[in-house]
Please model this.
Amino acid sequence: MKPSAKKSGNPSLTTHPNGAGGTASRAVFFSGADSNPAPPFQPDAPWLAPMAGYSDLPFRLLCRRYGAAAAVSEMVSAKGLVMRQPGTNKLLDTCPEDSPLVVQLFGVEPEVLAEAVRILRDRGFRLFDLNAGCPVRKVAKTGAGAALLKDMDQLVRIVEAMAEAAGDCRVGVKLRPGFETNDVQAVENAPRLESAGASWLAFHPRFGKQMFSGTAHMELLAAFKSRTCLPVVGSGDLFSAQAGAYMIRSTGVESVMYARGALADPAVFLRHVALVRGEAAPQGLPGPAEMIREHIALARGFEDSERTLRRMRSIVPRYIRELHGAKTLRQRLTRCENFAELDEAIDEIEAIQGAAVPGNG
Ligand SMILES: Cc1cc2nc3c(=O)[nH]c(=O)nc-3n(C[C@H](O)[C@H](O)[C@H](O)COP(=O)(O)O)c2cc1C
Model:
């Protein structure tokens, strides 16, 4: 069962080459009355969350095949974009089936983020997101990502600048409750983001300092939702469709975004849709080995073999966490020197996956 990629409304789509330095990069260009559609905010429209190093074009397309209703790009440095830094364009690779796509930006200065939005608009992108949740040192030490939560006035100024630059396009914000443990500034200031011009909010209820440790504080997600009229997409500890459906029921968020759960099982979106609609669980979904092969085929269609192999060595182990013998297999995967060795390792995954395929059949 492989539903085709969804499209937002039915805009007429063409592609046009990106600006500086991009031969492979293409942006979707929308034209016509339905040119700036909102992303979907319904319980049965799960999103793929932004994941640096993972939510690239091939993975987004894979997740869309298996039910993701919207996807967010890997985070893109606003400064890198404005300064035309090499490497930034690669993160903006897209194609018509990769829609609706939200491009996530990180940065600190309102005018730089606004300029980045203008550049992206000129390239045909229509949906933008501010990263106010990434706690990794490389980002937070510059004052960007989750560090923005330390200064809500600055965060609000950035959202205002981005929303103004976006014009009739839309801007969302992805954030955490606060930076320090038990700091809930973002929850208290949720109404200000709405006045600043945000169109939606994505909320991961772990404090910045928590990184990815401990569990997500679902009560904070519910409190955040209760303080804003904007659509909220919930994130955090969604490792199964059951967890996603429960988050929607228990917190009142409009939808959810899967992150690590999608890395282990891109079909989690179809499972989610069926569960939320009260339909029978989808049958005949691929197991890890088949899914890995599909992912590799998609990646090879967009990137040279060397790069695909390098990326797959780090991506494939995410698919087999639950499998018996995963540790040995993971070590073997990271040592694969060519596709023949990778194929052999996948054959082995196929041999041991047996009845352990999550929720299959
Ligand atoms: C490898 C990885 C990379 C991530 N990169 C980003 C990112 O670029 N931007 C962002 O807003 N969140 C990022 N996140 C956070 C996820 O989008 C998500 O909010 C978080 O993982 C919680 O969801 P989960 O517990 O279901 O994985 C990343 C998470 C992971 C695991």
Notes: The radius of gyration is 20 Å. The longest helix spans residues 152-166. The pocket of flavin mononucleotide is lined by residues 49-54, 74-75, 104, 131, 133-134, 174, 204, 235-238, 259-261 (CB under 6 Å). Residues 1-34, 357-361 have pLDDT under 50 and may be disordered.
